[in-house]
Amino acid sequence: MRFMMSTSQAILTWSGLCAILSPPILGSAVQLLPPPPILVNFTADVVYNYTGTLNQTKSVTPLVIDTFVDVDRNDLGFWHGPSTSLPAETGHGYVRLFPSDADQNYHTELGPATCFDMRPYQHMYLHLVFSGSTKFSISLNQLNEKCDSRRSPFLETWDSVEAERYARGNDIYVPLDHFLVDQSRTVSVSFHGFFTWDSLTLYKVEIVSEVPWGFYVPPKLENGKLFLHCTRPNSFAFGIDDGLPHLVRDVMEILEEEKILVTFFVVGAGLRDKGANFSSVYKEMLQKGHQIALHSDTHQKIEGLETIKAVDEEIVHNMETFQRELGIQSRYFRPPYGTIGARTRQRLAAYIKDPNIINWSVDVEDWLWKDSKTPERQRDAFFRDVGRGGNLVVMHYLSPTTVRYFKEFIHFIKSLNIDIMRVDQCLEDPDSPPIDPLRYQKPVKYKVQSNRDPGAQEGMAE
């Protein structure tokens, strides 16, 4: 079991916190890993895109998803495998995982990287035969509304349960209705959110119609909804995480000039640092109409913390600091590094009514390129993800290069005649402020210039 530090032991200055936000650690911020390209000559005896009667559970044959007899394919004929950073030992009839990070994951696909309709099985159970650790999350993953693996985000959302709550001996039974996703658009089952170094061995993953007599299945715990994409038509949102004090004024000037509203995800430790003066800055942001949302207390990978007490401290101290320093409460939370699993979601719901967990579908990749020899690749990343359909951003003001490109990003979205707004507004939250139509009257003309031409300047707004 790896050594974990509770948040009460992690007393960070703002300069120390900014160091945590630097590469390469922030480079691990990922959503659950999409599968590789579809195998060309797969064969599978499986029903997907089901459109028949949905309530005849007794007529539905139990579905064996994976018995791990093949290295590359599960029993359905589709891909299974670990993320590149997760060591795994494969054998005939098992896979053994050796996790060391909460972001690592193992997927087994339900269809060929397209939507699989789970509704015929909706009153049945996900059954795992396993040995070893129970310190992980199990997720049912939902594909985007286009059922297109080339779109961003690939996984539109997922719901997770805590394996330990459902485990008895070497079996886990989870009612499928405990996964609150659109089950007409499922794509895979995954295992992630590890918070020990203990190994996990999987022998079987299947859908069955009943549990053994006497096997206790716990109730579903409340948890937060996860969003990676705006739901309001023609909307776009910049979700800006914390940055450096000397750059925040530049960001504020850009927002004022461009007359847009954004959402800031704010770490509690930064607000408490009097030298950084973030409390007065974010109070001013609030007065100007921007949304201020939670981002943990000390920017740790919360799902990887060993104890519930440590998870709670990251959430509660962030909330208390917001109340004390800004006089506000928030239902919106962005997990540091985008790392999210069942425990974090459940503990958020224990303290916040209907929490919204916000990841992203546009990654500027400032964590990777901001101080490199090619900072313009932040532009490439932004245009790439927007081109794939992404409309909810993650970025930081940790570098002058990112701040410099920020105005260009805004101009490009305006040139598409897309409305830029706060995250709560783009998610059509009835409690969000009404949209001001005067902000969206005139699109900006924009011309993209190549980064590859040594003589080219930045993209120009006219």
Automatic annotation (TrEMBL):
Residues 1-27 form the signal peptide. Keywords: Carbohydrate metabolism, Cobalt, Hydrolase, Metal-binding, Signal. It comes from the Eukaryota. Its cofactor is Co(2+). Residues 234-421 form the NodB homology domain. Pfam families: Polysacc_deac_1. CDD domains: CE4_NodB_like_6s_7s. Residues 431-462 are annotated as: Disordered. PANTHER family: CHITIN DEACETYLASE, GLYCOSYL HYDROLASE. This is NodB homology domain-containing protein. It comes from Aspergillus pseudoustus.
